[in-house]
Amino acid sequence: MSKSKTKSHKTSLTAAGRKEADTKAKKKGGKGSKSAKTPVSSTTPVAENRKAKFRYEILDSIECGMMLTGSEVKSMREGKLSLDEAHIRITNGELWLVGADLAQYSNAGLWNHDPRRARKLLVHQKEFNKFAGRAFERGLTLIPLRVYFNDRGIAKCVMGLVKGKKLHDKRETIKKRDTDRGLQRAMRRG
After folding, report:
1. If we measure between CA atoms, which residue out of 120, 116, 117 comes closest to residue 95?
2. Could you name the CATH architecture of 44-187?
3. Is residue 30 over pLDDT 50?
4. Fewest C-beta in 10 Å: which of 43, 48, 100, 118?
């Protein structure tokens, strides 16, 4: 009997020792704890401008906030945003999302929003200076690439500085996409 008591006592001590080591590692931020792993950011996609990759060459992109009304946020949560004809315009030192179609929220009633109104985008001054200065260069423009809700539930827009593709560039993109699909099919079969 004494052996079994000692054995179980020894096991509980090691388990307690493991718990203590884990709590020390958590406080120090060490590698030994399971909860010290970096949290995975979760985003909820709302809309994506899929034609942008085909029509434009994306040079640079940046994440910016959006100023929205309550009914706009609720409509975005239902996924009723279209970025097909949207672009970004610089007016009086501010960025504005123009041409995005955000359908009216069905339960808003009297306090509903205008579906095609311009929405203000929020960026830091340093980022604004960088992108606004380059946007006035010949052939470059700003467009929204995608809109999503971040892990805190805040609406964000990824803005891209793009250059329009010529017809032959679009043909090269189509050829490359077709060859990539063929390679993927061959890899799956063989």
Report:
1. 120
2. Beta Barrel (2.40)
3. no
4. 43
Any idea which of 7-11, 94-98, 118-122, 171-175 has the lowest mean pLDDT? 7-11
Residues facing residue 162 across a β-bridge? 58, 141
d(CA 45, CA 63): 14
Angstrom distance (rounded) from CA 100 to CA 51: 14
The identity of residue 70, as a single letter, is: G
Return the closest-CA partner of residue 143 out of 100, 93, 91, 189: 100
What's the pTM value of the predicted model, to 2 decimals?
Answer: 0.64
Residue ranges with strand state E in 19-178: 44-48, 56-66, 81-82, 87-91, 94-98, 101-102, 119-122, 140-149, 155-164
Interior angle at CA 148, CA 143 and CA 150, nearest 5 = 130
**Domain ranges within the chain, ordered by starting residue:** 44-187
